[in-house]
Amino acid sequence: MFQNVNPATGQKLDEIAEMDDAAVESALARADAMWRQWRISTLEDRTALLSHIGDAFEGNKHRLAEIATREMGKTLKSAVAEVEKCVAAFRHYAEHGPEFLESFEVQVAKGRAIGRWLPIGPVLAVMPWNFPYWQVVRFLAPAIMAGNVGLLKHASITQGVGAAIEDMVLKGGAPEGLFQNLPVKSGKVADIIADRRVAAVTLTGSEGAGQKVAEAAGRALKKVVLELGGSDPFIVMPSADIDEAAKQAVTARIQNTGQSCICGKRMIVHADIYDAFAEKFVAGMKAVKADDPMHDETDMGPLSSFEQRDTVLDQIERAKQAGATLLCGGAKLDKPGAYMSAGVLTDVPPESDIAKEEIFGPVAMLFKVPDIDAAIALANDIPYGLGSSVWTKDAAEQERFERDIAAGMTAVNQMLASTPEAPFGGVKLSGHGRELGPWGMHEFMNLKSVLLND
């Protein structure tokens, strides 16, 4: 049984029953049977279905957003925006999916070879709570377009979202079994991965979860894509627009109450403009309003749970014990719910454990560096490599950052964000493989070589 709590109020939500072994078996049988049909469906059928599912999401976006807000605390306005982003993804793959699946031809020593993209079967997605719609849809839309079918193991605290996604897929006209939400707990994931009917697995989540899923996939010799944590650098150089950089740094750090893998977490600022940036950034963080996520004027809601808030507060204390200074915020708020104020840490020893961790909450670490070499070295001196944001108007500096920051993504003079068109993923302990664009679709397809001698 799943028993969740609204993190904004502390009140219990409806209980959701866990799927038993017999129900899991039935779901896997349906997925296998449906794949055998869907794999030979026409591109026209696939694109039409994606468009209709997008319409279902759009027509129900406010109801869907309210479910996410109740379950994990993000502001209602940001939840609506997340659903709208899902609509864009469905429509992107409906429009461009056929071209992503086009065969190609190469000349070989004798004759020619044709490369064909073919589906591989049911794909299991193990997904987190922080962007509970978007992180599912960025797997699901390309999976449907590819001719695969989807199975979802959603986070324990967002079971209502998982059920709602399945409902929207069915409302869009999908045949039964094309996408199924499996309300199971983590202990059953390895057995599902091992089942011969599951072709591959994708996970977005923590490093620990990634290790367990990768181990299970490895034992079964199945393809796995992992998008894990990150502690993204947000680097500001003297030529940057300081006002805009400071403004975007605040947005990056507090979006989704700081619970985003790719929001800037370590603000690395050149010494020449450090004081000016720090003043603006701290002022912006102090002005952040943490309140009821249902209200339009709220900047950020509670953290996803009381446990998550306590984890962040503990990280702040450990940073202070290591020698860091808390410039503002970073405290529990005196109201019901898992609220805390936005905080800024400075003087964090770069060699300390906390400097290399991901703080999954609205707390930034602020570092001063003397030059670009030091900025890049500090940016890379962590085990993660997901995203990065760099602020400079100097073309040579931009080239250095693009080439030398060890990350899967770098945004220049803007806050990093995912988009359906561009590849998404990381290096080092941030995982491997890519989502979105044609690359995310191709991760779970068989690129078959057809050799012809004509």
TrEMBL record:
KW GTP-binding (keyword) present: no
Signal peptide extent: none
E.C. number: 1.2.1.16, 1.2.1.20, 1.2.1.79
Protein's name according to its UniProt entry: Succinate-semialdehyde dehydrogenase/glutarate-semialdehyde dehydrogenase
Family (UniProt): Belongs to the aldehyde dehydrogenase family.
NADP keyword on record: yes
UniProtKB keywords: NADP, Oxidoreductase
